[in-house]
Amino acid sequence: MALPPGPRTPALVTTYHWIRRPQPFLTECRDTFGPAFTIRLPNLPPVAIFANPDDVKDIFTGDSDTMLAGRFNLSLRAFLGDHSVLMLDGREHLRQRRLLLPPFHGERMTAYGRIMIDAAHDAIDRFPFRSPFAVHGYMQEITLHVILRAVFGLEEGPRLDALAEAVTNLLEIAVWPPLLLPAMQRDLGPWSPWGRFLHYKRQTHGMLLDQIRRRRAEQATRPEGLEGDDVLTLLLQARDEEGQPLTDEELRDELMTLLVAGHETTATGLAWALHWILTTPGIEARLRRELADGHFTPERIARLELLDAVVRETLRLQPVLPFVGRILDKPVRVGGWDLPAGVGAVCSIYLAHKRPEVYTEPDRFNPDRFLGTKFSPYEFFPFGGGIRRCIGMAFALHEMKMVLATVLARTILRPAHDRAIRAVRRNITLTPSDGCSVVLKRRAPRSTAAHAA
Questions:
Q1: 290 φ, ψ (degrees, to nearest 5)
Q2: Which residues contact 421 (CB under 8 A, 6 or more apart)?
Q3: Are strands 411-415 and 323-328 parallel, antiparallel or unpaired?
Q4: 390 is in an annotated binding site
Q5: Residue range 148-168, pLDDT digits in tens
Q6: Which residues of 65-79 are buried (b: 16+ CB within 10 A; e: fewer)?
Q7: What is the DSSP letter of 8?
Q8: pTM
Q9: CATH code: domain of residue 404
Q10: Which residues does UniProt assign to the signal peptide (predicted)?
Q11: pLDDT in tens, 399-437
Q12: In sequence order, which residues have a C-beta less than 8 Å from that of residue 79 and are 6 or more positions away?
């Protein structure tokens, strides 16, 4: 058994680079050791990292009973819960996945699209005028309100505001990168980071369980055919192959996963997209022409080819998640390497998306590469792959299009500065170092969106 070569620096030094400068660190390892290398972090098994499409295919199509994604994600258990689909493997994972998939596909996207556009309008109305601001924070507001309305079925009011505040408080602490390290997950009282996190987690859990039980009671008394079409309603109705529903605790953890993972990742993708739109010559003007050529409806926005290409190129050049991985339960051969049991096998999304053999000028933002070209799921995989591909992929892509179209239809934004920005870690996501700092030059009324940009 052998692992690919890798840096021989002390594990603590490697951890510093992994947390503080993840993309340069990965690039340096690739340039030194090639497309497969191994890193070592404190108190964790060695992690073999791969970026070659053939190696990625080996991992994504490998035996799911041997290559365990749930075990690899254990560092997220305290954030998401024991029953989160991200924590599960084997039959438990497949059961949960089958129950969760239907609400995030099909005709419901149109109804969700209207919620997404409304949330974008609300945020745009609050953009400060003629003074620099970080657009990432407003994108977080949008994606959080979309989840609370589309997933929980909450309308504007005290209940939505209370849950939004609880989740915001929780995430302000949870995104601190060192909390991913087991050594930092110690409750040293209410003033310690982990102590504060646990306080807000208990508060959020209580509100989620209250909402689940309230909705169960409402369903029991509501006439057939009058059920809502939000995700929570559909999950409450879902049954597995044995006719069993999701328990309150399973629902709580899945909702927590949607709140923590879905909200933060999509907001970050939107901030990166606006950065590239505003700083790449010609792209904004082309998008405005595409938007102006027809009605401003969710159905039409979803079909806009250049907008779709801009979203995909954003996720190629700056994937929100730098990697996805598995822990090996048995020895496995990947890319010519015989990996022993117990190690991590990781697909580097960032490095795979930067391969010049696949993408011409890989460091340049060029949405045209996605017009008329379809890359394999082992070359382009911003949402992971195989049976572990993100359940919310279609929802996230749809939301990015709806929000970007609304921002372009109503505003003229300009970069607040010309300094280079870099990707910085917020827990598991990689965000723009300046939050995508912009200046609002013009804001049109909501009604103008009906006529596009």
A1: -65, -40
A2: 275, 432, 433, 434, 436
A3: unpaired
A4: yes
A5: 999 888 887 888 899 889 988
A6: eebbbbbbbeebebb
A7: -
A8: 0.94
A9: 1.10.630.10
A10: none
A11: 999 999 999 999 999 999 999 999 888 877 889 999 999
A12: 174, 201, 256, 260, 427
Question: Per-residue confidence at 453, pLDDT binned at 50, 70, 90?
Answer: very low
Number of domains in the chain: 1
CB 420 within 8 A of CB 451: no
**Sign, Cα dihedral of 77, 81, 84, 89:** positive
The model's pLDDT over 264-283, given as tens digits with 9 standing for 90+, comes to 899 999 999 999 999 999 99
Q: Check: CB of residue 117 under 8 Å from CB of residue 140.
A: no
Domain region containing 94: 11-451
Residue 147 lies in a domain: yes
Give the torsion sign (CA, 370, 375, 381, 383). positive
Contact of 80 with 86, CB cutoff 8 Å: yes
Helix, strand, or coil (residue 244): coil
The DSSP code for 157 is T
Distance, in Å, from the CA atom of 308 to the CA atom of 371, rounded to the nearest integer, reads 9
Strand partners, 328: 67
The answer to whether 427 touches 180, Cβ cutoff 8 Å, is yes
SS3 at position 412: strand
Note whether residue 210 is domain-resident.
yes
How is residue 74 written in tokens? 């254990």
Q: Which two tokens stand for residue 31?
A: 């340039």
CB distance 163 to 152 below 8 Å: yes
* pLDDT at res. 429: 86
φ, ψ for residue 255, nearest 5 deg? -65, -40
* Residue with token string 């994504």: 60
In this structure, the strands spanning 67-68 and 133-134 are: unpaired
Tokens 């009058």 locate to 226
Tokens of 142: 């949008």
Residue 1 located in a structural domain? no
Sign of the Cα torsion 349, 359, 39, 378 reads positive
| Within-domain flag for 344 | yes
CA distance 2 to 327: 16
CA atoms within a 13 Å half-sphere pointing along the CA-CB vector of 257? 23
